[in-house]
């Protein structure tokens, strides 16, 4: 039996800046995970993944990853993805300071 | 020190120009990522968690003041004002933008540096003893050999698509400061019965998923045979190494699966063919290279000033106790500058600090700097009479931490703060351990102790050869830290033993504290280091300290 599908978002790194971006319902890439489209249906998720991979002129390495709904919008489940929304822990660099 | 020939210069410039074109085509959409990725990796450009990362080679860890200043310039102009020195004697920039990379590479070429072969299945930056050319116990400076190997391996057409990456380390001393036994090829200089210098050749060492201590394939190789012999090893590996499974592709697995004897027979047979092809041009080249590594003209000066300053200034005295090593020239010392201030990121230096180091090297250090695999910076040739001035200069740049070889002199890989392959963070653990023992004021009492931390099984932080090794893992979506004990990266190299179940991020620092507390309790006296004690008593008492609840259960 296959495992039940858990909600996901599509994420990648921006081609020029290299930072984390998430695919929004409006086919744009946002630097804020809360703007992401939460994918709750497996077929739709696969379809969106194909779309994301085809966006290789703006993003690199698109992948589907677990996410959960929150009041603000989709939020990370795994700590790695949480770090990607923030930046490193040793300096105030990256998204946590908006750069 | 080696300076680029016209040929080197032209080669590097051409590579930058090519890469500039490739970046433009990528940005225009003419190259896909699948096409571009191998090209960027060939030029040291990775994509990490939050940004691109540029890895710049510092061949055998040697650089001059001008090069160090240029590294500072790159950090300020195109990064966030700092650089990270790695366990492979490279420097990494964590925040460059794709469009700026060609300019960064051009700026590096201006000072004879590049990022070629810092990635991919090629022969990587050849590393060397960071005290090369200075150490009192050295037979010969190993850097001319390292440079010869660099020239031979750079763009070598036969070795651009090896089964896996290939790392070579060289030391000119019987004492191994270059972890040669954890390299694909390790070269340790020794003398034969006739007193001639040559190399003990070690093959098949490596850390990572399957840690292995290298095996001696040749007890004594005359220096003149080095290149054909190394070529024989790499070419045997190139044919025999497995390409079907990434995890079994390193030469350590080739050696383990085929047996050392078979590999030795194949290598010797191939060497026999190759040595005839090496008609002597390599020896001519080596002579030219050796001429570039003539030692500086050491001077004579009075030492009273140094002694007086030392007697009057306890902080300086403490620093000279931990951060100096014996130099071959009378009156000189090797200075290790700690890039491990308590609470700071191991191996990170700011642009200002890099410039201060360049300045000190120029004024007091015969214009030489080294990067150690332990992520510190070395001023290899300082006359003791200049040490007070060097120390004050370092203090002004916040670089005077007196902790070389102590518990806070921790190796830590970038881990999940930067690295896309990581399974957990390593930097914050290093920061917390250093701060904790600084607060306890126990560091000097504990004495020589090497803690090494990796953020995943790839072991860039050398945790297997740490006296205390820490490996960060992902256990069911939570960071978890596994401890190994008794590892050692010197000429008596050993892989550490796993102590037991891992600890959470909150529990790991208290666990290390219990471990070291146990050591202080068990050791015979202050001269018995952690490693010596571990070798004497084994794992059991340390396990009891790490897992007191288990101990209590057993007693009940
Ligand atoms: S050990 Fe793992 S986490 Fe650390 S730098 Fe190497 S690959 Fe990255």
From TrEMBL, chain A:
<dbReference type="InterPro" id="IPR021270">
    <property type="entry name" value="DUF2849"/>
</dbReference>
<protein>
    <submittedName>
        <fullName>Uncharacterized protein</fullName>
    </submittedName>
</protein>
<feature type="region of interest" description="Disordered">
    <location>
        <begin position="76"/>
        <end position="99"/>
    </location>
</feature>
<dbReference type="Pfam" id="PF11011">
    <property type="entry name" value="DUF2849"/>
</dbReference>
Automatic annotation (TrEMBL), chain B:
<keyword id="KW-0411">Iron-sulfur</keyword>
<feature type="domain" description="Nitrite/sulphite reductase 4Fe-4S">
    <location>
        <begin position="409"/>
        <end position="546"/>
    </location>
</feature>
<dbReference type="InterPro" id="IPR006067">
    <property type="entry name" value="NO2/SO3_Rdtase_4Fe4S_dom"/>
</dbReference>
<keyword id="KW-0479">Metal-binding</keyword>
<protein>
    <submittedName>
        <fullName>Sulfite reductase [ferredoxin]</fullName>
        <ecNumber>1.8.7.1</ecNumber>
    </submittedName>
</protein>
<dbReference type="GO" id="GO:0020037">
    <property type="term" value="F:heme binding"/>
</dbReference>
<dbReference type="GO" id="GO:0051539">
    <property type="term" value="F:4 iron, 4 sulfur cluster binding"/>
</dbReference>
<dbReference type="InterPro" id="IPR045854">
    <property type="entry name" value="NO2/SO3_Rdtase_4Fe4S_sf"/>
</dbReference>
<keyword id="KW-0349">Heme</keyword>
<keyword id="KW-0004">4Fe-4S</keyword>
<keyword id="KW-0408">Iron</keyword>
<dbReference type="Pfam" id="PF03460">
    <property type="entry name" value="NIR_SIR_ferr"/>
</dbReference>
<dbReference type="Pfam" id="PF01077">
    <property type="entry name" value="NIR_SIR"/>
</dbReference>
<feature type="domain" description="Nitrite/sulphite reductase 4Fe-4S">
    <location>
        <begin position="119"/>
        <end position="272"/>
    </location>
</feature>
<feature type="domain" description="Nitrite/Sulfite reductase ferredoxin-like">
    <location>
        <begin position="346"/>
        <end position="397"/>
    </location>
</feature>
<dbReference type="GO" id="GO:0050311">
    <property type="term" value="F:sulfite reductase (ferredoxin) activity"/>
</dbReference>
<dbReference type="InterPro" id="IPR005117">
    <property type="entry name" value="NiRdtase/SiRdtase_haem-b_fer"/>
</dbReference>
<dbReference type="GO" id="GO:0046872">
    <property type="term" value="F:metal ion binding"/>
</dbReference>
<dbReference type="InterPro" id="IPR051329">
    <property type="entry name" value="NIR_SIR_4Fe-4S"/>
</dbReference>
<dbReference type="InterPro" id="IPR036136">
    <property type="entry name" value="Nit/Sulf_reduc_fer-like_dom_sf"/>
</dbReference>
<feature type="domain" description="Nitrite/Sulfite reductase ferredoxin-like">
    <location>
        <begin position="52"/>
        <end position="110"/>
    </location>
</feature>
<keyword id="KW-0560">Oxidoreductase</keyword>
């Amino acid at each position: 039996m296959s495992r039940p599908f858990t909600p996901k978002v599509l994420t990648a790194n921006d081609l020029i800046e290299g930072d984390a971006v998430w695919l929004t319902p409006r086919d744009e890439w946002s630097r804020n995970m809360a703007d992401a489209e939460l994918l709750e249906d497996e077929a739709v998720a696969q379809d969106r993944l194909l779309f994301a991979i085809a966006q290789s002129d703006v993003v690199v390495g698109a992948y589907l990853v677990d996410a959960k709904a929150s009041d603000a919008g989709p939020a990370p489940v795994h700590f790695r993805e949480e770090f990607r929304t923030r930046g490193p822990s040793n300096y105030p660099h990256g998204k946590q300071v908006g750069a | 020190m080696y300076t680029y020939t016209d040929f080197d210069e032209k080669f590097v410039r051409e590579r930058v120009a090519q890469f500039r074109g490739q970046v433009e085509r990528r940005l225009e959409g003419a190259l896909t990522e699948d096409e571009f990725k191998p090209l960027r990796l060939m030029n040291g450009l990775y994509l990490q968690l939050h940004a691109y990362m540029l890895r710049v080679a510092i061949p055998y860890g040697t650089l001059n003041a001008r090069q160090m200043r240029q590294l500072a310039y790159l950090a300020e102009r195109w990064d966030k004002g700092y650089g990270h020195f790695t366990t492979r004697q490279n420097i990494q920039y964590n925040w460059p933008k794709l469009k700026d990379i060609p300019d960064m590479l051009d700026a590096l070429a201006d000072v004879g540096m590049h990022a070629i072969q810092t990635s991919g299945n090629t022969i990587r930056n050849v590393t060397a003893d960071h005290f090369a050319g200075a150490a009192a116990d050295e037979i010969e400076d190993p850097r001319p050999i390292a440079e010869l190997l660099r020239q031979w391996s750079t763009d070598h057409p036969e070795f651009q698509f090896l089964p896996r990456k290939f790392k070579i380390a060289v030391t000119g001393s019987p004492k191994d400061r270059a972890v040669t036994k954890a390299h694909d090829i390790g070269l340790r200089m020794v003398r034969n019965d006739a007193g001639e210098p040559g190399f003990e050749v070690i093959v098949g060492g490596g850390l990572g998923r399957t840690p292995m201590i290298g095996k001696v394939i040749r007890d004594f190789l005359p220096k003149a045979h080095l290149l054909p012999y190394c070529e024989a090893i790499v070419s045997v590996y190139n044919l025999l190494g497995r390409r079907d499974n990434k995890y079994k592709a390193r030469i350590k697995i080739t050696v383990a699966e085929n047996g050392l004897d078979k590999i030795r027979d194949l290598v010797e047979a191939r060497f026999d063919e190759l040595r005839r092809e090496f008609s002597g041009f390599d020896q001519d080249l080596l002579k030219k290279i050796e001429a570039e590594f003539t030692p500086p003209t050491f001077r004579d000066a009075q030492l009273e000033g140094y002694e007086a300053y030392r007697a009057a200034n306890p902080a300086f005295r403490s620093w000279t106790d931990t951060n100096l090593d014996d130099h071959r020239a009378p009156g000189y010392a090797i200075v290790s500058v700690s890039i491990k201030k308590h609470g700071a990121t191991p191996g990170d230096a700011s642009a200002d600090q890099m410039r201060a180091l360049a300045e000190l090297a120029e004024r007091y250090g015969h214009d030489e700097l080294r990067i150690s695999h332990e992520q510190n910076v070395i001023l290899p040739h300082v006359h003791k009479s200049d040490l007070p001035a060097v120390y004050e200069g370092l203090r002004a740049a916040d670089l005077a931490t007196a902790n070389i070889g102590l518990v806070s002199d921790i190796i830590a890989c970038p881990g999940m703060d930067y690295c896309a392959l990581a399974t957990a963070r390593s930097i914050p653990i290093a920061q917390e351990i250093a701060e904790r023992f600084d607060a306890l004021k126990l560091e000097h009492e504990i004495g020589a102790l090497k803690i090494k931390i990796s953020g995943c099984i790839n072991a860039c932080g050398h945790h297997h050869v740490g006296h205390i090794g820490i490996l960060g893992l992902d256990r069911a979506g939570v960071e978890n830290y596994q401890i190994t004990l008794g590892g050692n990266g010197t000429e008596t190299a050993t892989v550490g033993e796993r102590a037991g179940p891992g600890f959470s991020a909150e529990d790991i620092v208290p666990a290390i504290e219990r471990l070291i507390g146990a050591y202080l309790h068990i050791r015979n006296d202050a001269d018995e280091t952690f490693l010596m004690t571990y070798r004497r008593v084994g794992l059991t008492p340390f396990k009891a300290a790490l897992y007191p609840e288990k101990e209590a259960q057993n007693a009940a």
